[in-house]
Amino acid sequence: MKNILKDEIKRDILFLVISGIALIFSFTHVKLFNVDLAWIAIILCGIPIIKEGIEGLVTEFDIKADVLVSMALIASIIIGEIFAAGEVAFIMQIGAFLEEFTVRKSRKGIEKLVHLTPTLARVIVNNEEKSINAKDVNVGDLLRVNPGEIIPVDGVITKGKTSIDNSVMSGESIPLDLSEGDSVCSGAVNQFGSFEMKATKVGEDSSIQRMIKLVQSADASKAKIVGVVDRWATYIVVAAFSSAILTWLITGEIIRAVTILVVFCPCALVLATPTAIVAAIGNVSKHGILVKEGDALERLSKVSKITFDKTGTLTYGKPRVEEIVSVMNDLSNEQLYEMVASSELYSEHPLGKAIVSSFKENHNKEIKAPQEFKIIPGRGVIAKVNNKKVIAGNKHLLLDEKFKRDEIRFIREKYKNQGKFIIYIGINDKIGGYVILSDTLREESKSMIKSIKSLGISPVLLTGDNKYVANNIASQVNIEEVKSECFPQDKLGLIDKYQEKENKMVCMVGDGINDAPALKKAYVGIAMGGVGSDIAVDAADIVLVRDDIDNLPHLLNLSKHMMKTIKINLAFSMILNFIAVILAMTGFLGPVVGALVHNAGSVLVIMNSALLLKYNKTYEKDNENLKNGSPRTNSEISYSSF
């Protein structure tokens, strides 16, 4: 498919180049075998226009600009004005090529979602395990899922403990620690430990299949913007044809009638929108922004509300160590940090990896390997470091190891409403302290939100995280409207509510697979290209290739300025057409001169659009964090006493 599109683009460019050269020779009266070379432009550029015009009329009685152009082409040929016919066809095809070039769209997202669906399932029958097609799993079947495997259907864990990556549904990068009685979703990845589960939702009812349906339905419901020329085509055709017939009947000169049809051709009108869009796309591409949908910038200019995913969008999407606290008199915070890093050295859990990477960033020393190491799926790790037993994990692990509940509760209460991740540390048989981790806010997020508000656009936070994490991030960036614990269908429903019930045009900014339906449903979808999933990128209209979220204000403002440019182009084109029609009626313009006037108008439209390439409005950065030195970096860690 990709190669076919490339071949079509190459063919269109070749035809335009050949037609342009042929028109130059025709204008200088150079002929080949006594044949006007403008016929080449008519054949290469004009015949497709006439074909599309006839097909639209016959199949759907749909009057578009092609109908008027076809009338002008045929009339010019009949009276022998071959150059005028070729020139009009050439200009119209340039506009059509630019328009088509900007609306080419990738549709790989749904295919990639389908590939996420597991094909095999391990079913346990009479205590024996056998592999079957995931489509053949029935409700009530007992399944086993091994480490690294994708969960085939929705169900409930009946045996075992595990950690699963549920980012497909929630978007959160931190695995969920689950055990007997907990629910699991299809499409999630089992990271640690085998477990058994009972199937509750299978086939089309499973979470991953519902996700695919959400993306498909959201894509189908997004209406495309109809070009201004096609919206007005019926009126233009009626006005042009009526003016030409009346002029012919009154003056008796058919050449005036044909000239009216030629100058009525909306060449500059056709170029007004696509040239501005192409120039604007060229502008944002210099800022690392890829515009996939041709009309995306036009839609973006009408947005009044912008919704943000949290993880990987407003934040970096990776947990970082924020605080290390020792509660033992003979063990400093620094010593505890080194022991925990050593105990987590071989851990595959994202929180364990975060502790190790944070230690390496802040210390110029090697981490000692633990003398013993054991991972407890869904709980944490138990290791031997410096001949001491180190237990690092969640509250369940410490309770399993007979630590006092009151000591654990005290730590939990201190951080309960702050949206932090807590790793409890046990040294031998005593509470040694704890490690606080949190997702790190992008340094530019706060100033970006401030700039967006200055444009009159309301920001909203939509996240799969709990309300404490969501409110913590929202308060840091000054977002007032927050929706937490959102699954894909929840985000889709909220966007649908904003757009259908509140009649607001919504832009969605996200990065994960779980954001794909919302990105499709939103009036405009913007994906983070660096950290985002391929499926989210494919679902979006616009991609921030380098994750430079601080470029969003420029993108939004440019879209509004682009629409102003388009309106100026349209107004100029219509005024030029009106003057040219009057001159054609009075006989001051012939077909060839009329075609050249159109050519000059088209050039002026292109020049005005080209100014968008240099357009740039700078936004003042929020310097609040820069008053006393540089802003806090991801790797800075505070050490406080208990």
Describe the structure.
With 642 residues, this protein is of the alpha+beta class. It contains 23 helices and 25 strands. The radius of gyration is 32 Å and the shape is elongated. The strands form five sheets. Strands 12-24-23-22-13-20-21 form a seven-stranded mixed beta sheet, sandwiched between helices. α2 (38-60) packs across α4 (82-103) and α8 (228-251) runs antiparallel to α9. The chain starts with a helix and ends with a strand. β23, α21 and β24 form a beta-alpha-beta unit. The protein is 50% helix and 19% strand.
Please write out the topology.
Blueprint: H1 2-27, E1 31-32, E2 35-36, H2 38-60, H3 65-78, H4 82-103, H5 109-116, E3 120-125, E4 128-133, E5 142-145, E6 154-159, E7 162-165, H6 167-170, E8 176-178, E9 183-184, E10 189-192, E11 195-201, H7 207-221, H8 228-251, H9 254-264, H10 267-285, E12 289-291, H11 296-300, E13 305-308, H12 310-314, E14 315-326, H13 333-343, H14 350-362, E15 372-376, E16 380-385, E17 388-393, H15 395-400, H16 405-415, E18 421-427, E19 430-441, H17 445-454, E20 458-462, H18 467-477, E21 481-483, H19 488-501, E22 506-510, H20 516-521, E23 524-528, H21 534-539, E24 542-544, H22 552-585, H23 591-610, E25 638-639
Parallel strand pairs: 13-20, 13-22, 14-25, 20-21, 22-23, 23-24
Antiparallel strand pairs: 1-2, 3-4, 3-5, 5-11, 6-9, 6-11, 7-8, 7-10, 12-24, 14-19, 15-16, 16-17, 17-18, 18-19
